Amino acid sequence: MAGRPAHSETAAPAVATDAPVWISSENPFGDTPWWSRAAKKPDAAADKPGKPEAAEKGGKPGKPGGKPSDGFGRPSVSKVWLMTEDVSGEARCLPRAEGRVAAFGNDLQPVEAKLASGRGCTTVTIDTGIPGRYLLFYKTDRVVRGVCHSLIAKHEKNYIRHGDHGIVPGRGEPDAVAFNLERLPLPDEPLFFRYRSGDLLPLRVTERGQPVAGAVVTLTTGAGWSKRLVSDAEGKVTFQLIRDYYPEWGDFDKSHKERFVVTAQWEGKTPGSYEGTPYSSHRKRVTYAGQFYPETAGYESYAYALIFGTAALILTWVVVYWYRRRRVRPFEEVTFDEKD
Amino acid sequence: MKKIRRFLDNGDLRRFRTIVQLAAFVLLIYGAYFSIHLGNEIPVLSCGYDRQNGGMCYLLPLQHQLGRPLWLLFSMASIGILIGFATFLLWFIVFNKAWCGFICPLGTMQDWLTSLRKRFGIRYSTYSQGQFNALKSIKYVLLVLLLLLPVGIGSGVIGGEWRAAFCEICPGRMITPLFVGDVSQWTIDFSSKTSMILTALGMIITGMFIAGSFVKKRFFCFFCPMGALQYTFSKFAILRLKKDGSKCTKCGDCYTVCDMQIKDIADDVEDKNILRDDCIFCMKCIAACPEEGCLEAKMAGFTIFQSTKEGFAKRMNVNEPGGDHERP
Questions:
Q1: Among B51, B65, B192, B196, which would you mutate to test the A interface (most chain A Cβ atoms within 10 Å of its Cβ)?
Q2: What tens digit of pLDDT does each residue of A327-336 get?
Q3: Do A312 and B77 count as a contact with CB atoms less than 8 A apart?
């Protein structure tokens, strides 16, 4: 579900009515120049069950949101894509936007966010001129057979470049969010941080800032693996990210990105009405997409490094000592034989 | 003015250099703790892998910048590269190769290893002239590779793992972060064959660096591509090393004290500009020269340190060469 989408602008399968929506910062068109996007066939390998990320093996990763040309320099405006599933379960662009967006900057102040649909994709453009952490929420509400379905897709990203000194990413969440999935930062989380296999992903489910107990939280990776937990009294759940990427040594890419989507669901028997339509219960769902990379311990070795370094140190000293010893000539008394 | 001149010329260069080296080491290794950062175009091997550095070696950003796609490298977007290079030049032309002898933290570490060797009473090693001539071109080879490999990445000939290839093999990457408690660079990266070879080479060179610096003064400076890059532009610098060959008696003291074994400092009596590519501008030659005004360091035409009989006598704790005479 969270794998690299097999995107095509032609004759796309229909989007399921209750399909989740999540936000991706990757351009689903990848490296394809915009003038050649038409009739791009999805990779057949991506359709194989259990291997949705096989399509990534030979391809290049999608470019991050922002200027589509090169990603160099910090764009003052960044773009993200709304993704969903089609009826066959394949990830694809959300073709039309039916909801609304709200974005917040580093200090939780609202920032401008524009929703746009075109070429089969729905995008959100955020003003990221000021470096810091940005939160983006996309929300749709719909009443179907007396049940109000609220779907919130959340996106969190630090728009900070190495030249931006002294920036402290914001913490905390806006209280106005009806149903939220907060990522709890790790204790020593540095400024430029990425999750790696083996890392814990602590999350908290909240409703207008208050913890929600008993919410069903599901983490699904692009490889199709999923785990389901229930939030505790403090609304917390913790997942451990585990990679499913074990290629041959020659094909291993330490920057290989495995994607995941976390979905929290909660249903309450709270009657109400939405746009004049009454409902007897309210089903809330929030998604949070992310990615993680292979752990460094999986391909780096301290032991071999110390062996090589120590061996070089000792060998150098031995060579120097041997060389200097060879140059030392014992004293030889010069004698003359008068007969010669 | 004469008093100032005499004070400078008679100064204890060794103590002055030790103080400057220590201050520069603290600044460049721990600068971030004091919220000091001098930028990323510093002309010394102040490693960027030290997260608390107070100024970064220019070779790291240079490699990254040159590793752009060619169409971007030769576009207006590369004005940033030119600005970075201009900043590097502006830093460099002030102190010329004295950056090596007084500021470079990796050079300072080598001097510490030399001091350790002296405490053990172990004699230092030197290169023969043949070995010297054979090895001196290595730094230029490294400099050319350092500049060309990133361009190869941009043209698609080689993969991105070669982007900071010199940093992968530079001993500064392994040793400098140790001073802030970071051992994360002491690994071999098996993620690809290229990374494995480069990081393994880095560890081997680090082992050789420690052993070599212990027995040979300023061992790594002989192979340093930063020195080669600096020498390319040393004629534009305002700090110069000058020799008046007419006053040289070819006593060889300057060559004896020279950490880099530069023969020209003693042998060349024709060339007024006696700075050579291996020179680290430590000024030990000036301090050891017994002839009045034979060797001098000049900044923008003003002599800041010159060889004098009186200074020689004071530093060497001997009677003045040429007998005692009345001091002015």
A1: B192
A2: 877 777 777 7
A3: no
